[in-house]
Amino acid sequence: MTIAQINCFMEVARHQSFSKAAAQLFISQPAVSKQVSLLEKMLGVALIDRTYSTIQLTQAGKMFYDFFAENTERFHELLVEAKLVDRGHVGDLQLGCLDGWDISTFFPKMQGVLEDKYPNLHLRLNGYNHAQILDALSRGEIDVAVTLDITLHGGQSKFSYRPFTHAPVVVLFSALHPLAEKKDLSLYDFRDSPFYVITPQAVGSNAMEQLTLDVCKAAGFRPRIEHVPSSASVLLRLQGGLGVQITCEWTGACMLPLYRIMPLERELDIDAVWMENQQNPAKHIFLNELFAHYQSEEESEPEQEEA
Q: Can you count the helices (H) and strands (E) in the chain?
């Protein structure tokens, strides 16, 4: 059954004429007759009694006319809604970010972009650690993951990913740390402090541990690594006034007065990660808006500096 078949039948019934229905629909009379015949064949009942010289509906025809008259408007509304859902303009998009990140700028910004263009598309936010976030993506728990580029290296071929912004690498430590008030502070000054690295239960290399080793090597020492199970554990230890963490500026604790940060001369890419075989059509709408928005921001930065 097609919309064209229903429309032809309804116009014939209203005007009690194939020719008038054809004129109303701007198609030929044979085309109207064919569409009505196809509808009758599909339903398996006669809708029009052709034994009379004038158009009359059969009993079944009257029943279907009443049904279509009552439900056609809702059907058209439903069809519009279904097309919007199919194109990703309606529904939920599950977004995963790293636990402990400060997304107070990123998330409202992307919500605002989507609300302006797609008011019926809603972002849902979920938090994971470095190991969990890609597993959640594989299971279909989330549609898009936002994570550090360095955590994707090493056999993640089943994922598609692309950087959309970057964040400075910083040393995070407590305001109670003995070096917190030292002038001309350098990374080398922390050589005797433990460097905390989150080590969730996962197979493979730890990208953040390698980053810590690399930046400390460049500063002239080998750090004393201490592994902890979560970002919450890192913060608990830092609050005691001892130890530091190499992290990025998106870490939420960087914004809190309990802590201090020391920027390093290095940046990390922030990536959007997705799987092509996942079916949510809203995924590509979000990704296109994400990349376009941050590209626009980057292009406008030099103009702001000159002003």
A: 9, 10
Q: Determine what percent of the chain is predicted with pLDDT higher than 70.
A: 89
In the predicted structure, residue 77 carries a pLDDT above the cut 80: no
CB 257 within 8 A of CB 229: no
Lowest-pLDDT choice from 74-78, 91-95, 140-144, 300-304: 300-304
Phi-psi region of 218 (alpha: psi -120 to 50; beta: other; left: phi over 0): alpha
Largest Cα separation within the chain, whole Å, is 103
One-letter amino acid at 221 equals: F
Calpha distance 116→99 (Å, rounded): 28
Per-residue model confidence (pLDDT) at position 79: 60
As a whole number of angstroms, the distance between CA 283 and CA 153 comes to 23
Q: In terms of C-beta density within 10 A (0-12 exposed, 13-18 middle, 19 or more buried), how is residue 279 classed?
A: exposed
Read off the pLDDT of each residue in 56-70 and give the average, rounded to a whole number: 88
Helix (H) or strand (E) segment spanning residue 95? strand 91-98
Burial class (CB in 10 A: 0-12, 13-18, 19+), 51: exposed
- Confidence bin at 262 (pLDDT 50/70/90): very high
Q: Which residue has better confidence, 224 or 198?
A: 224
pTM (2 d.p.): 0.67
Burial of 124 by CB count in 10 Å (0-12 exposed, 13-18 middle, 19+ buried)? exposed
Q: Pick from 142, 147, 59: which is nearest to 103 by CA? A: 147
Helix (H) or strand (E) holding 165: strand 160-174
- Assign 3-class secondary structure to 276-305: CCCCCCHHHHHHHHHHHHHHHHHHHHHHHH
CA–centroid distance for 279 within its chain: 12
Residues 6+ apart with CB under 8 A from 261: 170, 171, 172, 173, 249, 254
Token match 């509808």: residue? 39
pLDDT tier at 97, thresholds 50, 70, 90:
very high
